[in-house]
Each structure stands twice: as structure tokens, then as C-alpha cells.
């Protein structure tokens, strides 16, 4: 018998042995389901935790829109007014890194009469996104920029600069909630509760609360009335506990 024939015979016997083992696992009661039975000795629960606080950051999108007969004239006028707005923001101690250009556009205003295209003038729009880190100053900032020439206040969003502390509070509450539920279920089932086997988490932070549009400063001074309210973060955990 050649060496090649011997190797083929050994490989064939090994494959037959694997097939026989698989058949035994499928045919012998309890052998194939033994591990599955262990996995089923567990309690899986959902826990939820919440934490809320006043937002510590406001994001305002504001800008200047100008019109003129020519694009150059509209752009020049827009630049002058926008420079005044930027000066007003600096006087309110808004840092340069907290001001970001959001949009700049030039478009023609067109009128159609008797199917003829007639350009009435040009509109230049320039808007910036501004982070205000003292939310109590939002009304004063809005007053300052509108006085400086801003005529588009697109909206305000209130959010958290760093939500990690609130997230930790909500996470601790979620785990305590999950353990409480598991202990109650274990007591009702007459079993002991073991250690957590699997834990998964989902973090839910609501989108920033937005005031869709603010048109002008409040009459009579005193600032635009703005109330940030409170925002909430939510953590959900899914925990699988062993049972004894």
C-alpha cells in the first residue's frame, strides 16, 4: 500500500468519526440540548434610568439678509452689517471658536412678466452658528445682535456641553432598576439570583430643545424672554442574571 493511499484512509476515518459524533449529539436525548438548558437558567430584564438638569449651552443661528440692485452692492451692505454683528458678539465675550459660519448665499430676485425674465435685484444672506455658554445671557445676546443689524434669527437650541455626568447618574439608576426587577422575579419564582452574565446599554438623549424662530428683541428693553427649562437623558440597560 502506497503512502498516499494510507493518508487518504486516515483522513476518511477521521471524517467518519466526526460524522458519528454529530449524529450522537442529534440522536441521544439531552446531549445536544445540555448547553441550551444551562443557558436557559437565567433571568433577563430591562432597566431604565433618567437624569435631568437645566441645559448649560445655547446654540443660536442668526444672520443678516440684504437686498440691492446689484450683487456687489448687496454683498457690500451685508458685509458691513455682519461686521457689526460680529463686533456685538465679541462685546458679549463670545469666543471666536464658538462662532461658525453656517451659510452664505447670493441669489437674484426674478420677476416673470409676459414670459420675460426680469431681475429685480439681488439678495445676499449670511448666517452664523453661535454657542452661548451662559444661557442666562441668551436674551441679551439676541438684543445685541439685532441692534447691530441681524435680521434673521433662525432659532435657538438648548443642550448640554458635556452630558457625561447626567449619563452616569441615569446609568446607575438603570442598573438599580434592572436588579430590583430581577430580584422580584427570582423571589416569585423561588430561585436565587446570581451575578449578571450579559449587559447591554442604550443611551437616549433627546434632541436639543429648539425655539424655532425668534424675530426681534422684546419691546421696552429688558432682553428677549427666553426660558431654557430642563432637558433629560435616558439610559436603558438589558441585563441577564444567572439563577441558582
Keywords:
5 helices; 8 strands; 5-stranded antiparallel β-sheet; 244 residues; elongated; Alpha-Beta Plaits; alpha+beta; 3-stranded antiparallel β-sheet
How would you name the CATH homologous superfamily of the domain at 57-161? Protein of unknown function (DUF541), domain 2
- Fraction of residues in β-strands: 35-45%
On the 0-100 scale, what is the average pLDDT?
82
Specify the biggest β-sheet.
5 strands, antiparallel
State the CATH class of the domain at 57-161.
Answer: Alpha Beta
Strand-pairing-aware structural class: alpha+beta
Question: What's the CATH topology name of the domain at 57-161?
Answer: Alpha-Beta Plaits
User: Which descriptor suits the 3D outline?
Assistant: elongated
Rg, Å, rounded: 33 Å
Please describe what this structure looks like.
There is one protein chain. The protein has a domain at 57-161: Alpha-Beta Plaits (2-Layer Sandwich), CATH 3.30.70.2970. The chain is 36% helix and 38% strand. The chain is built from five helices and eight strands, in the order H-H-E-E-H-E-E-H-E-H-E-E-E. It has a five-stranded antiparallel β-sheet with strand order 3-4-2-5-7. Strands 1-8-6 form a three-stranded antiparallel β-sheet. Helix 3 packs antiparallel against helix 4 (138-148). The protein is elongated.
Amino acid at each position: 500500500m502506497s503512502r498516499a493511499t494510507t493518508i487518504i484512509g486516515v483522513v476518511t476515518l477521521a471524517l467518519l468519526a466526526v460524522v458519528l459524533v454529530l449524529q450522537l449529539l442529534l440522536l441521544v436525548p439531552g446531549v445536544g440540548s445540555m448547553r441550551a438548558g444551562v443557558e436557559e437558567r437565567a433571568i433577563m430584564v430591562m432597566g431604565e434610568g433618567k437624569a435631568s438638569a437645566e441645559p448649560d449651552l445655547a446654540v443660536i443661528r442668526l444672520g443678516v439678509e440684504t437686498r440691492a440692485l446689484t450683487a456687489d452692492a448687496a454683498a457690500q451692505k451685508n458685509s458691513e452689517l455682519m461686521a457689526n454683528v460680529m463686533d456685538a458678539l465679541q462685546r458679549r465675550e463670545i469666543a471666536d471658536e464658538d462662532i461658525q459660519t453656517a451659510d452664505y448665499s447670493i441669489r437674484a430676485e426674478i420677476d416673470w412678466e409676459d414670459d420675460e425674465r426680469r431681475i429685480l435685484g439681488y439678495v445676499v444672506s449670511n448666517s452664523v452658528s453661535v454657542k452661548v455658554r451662559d444661557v442666562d445671557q441668551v436674551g441679551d445676546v439676541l438684543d445685541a445682535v439685532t441692534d447691530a443689524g441681524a435680521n434673521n434669527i433662525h432659532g435657538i437650541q438648548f443642550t448640554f456641553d458635556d452630558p457625561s455626568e447626567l449619563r452616569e447618574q441615569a446609568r446607575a439608576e438603570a442598573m438599580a432598576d434592572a436588579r430590583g426587577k430581577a430580584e422580584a422575579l427570582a423571589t416569585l419564582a423561588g430561585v436565587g439570583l446570581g451575578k449578571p452574565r450579559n449587559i447591554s446599554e442604550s443611551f437616549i438623549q433627546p434632541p436639543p430643545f429648539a425655539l424655532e424662530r425668534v424675530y426681534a428683541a422684546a419691546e421696552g428693553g429688558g432682553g428677549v424672554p427666553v426660558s431654557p427649562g430642563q432637558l433629560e437623558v435616558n439610559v436603558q440597560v438589558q441585563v441577564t442574571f444567572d439563577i441558582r
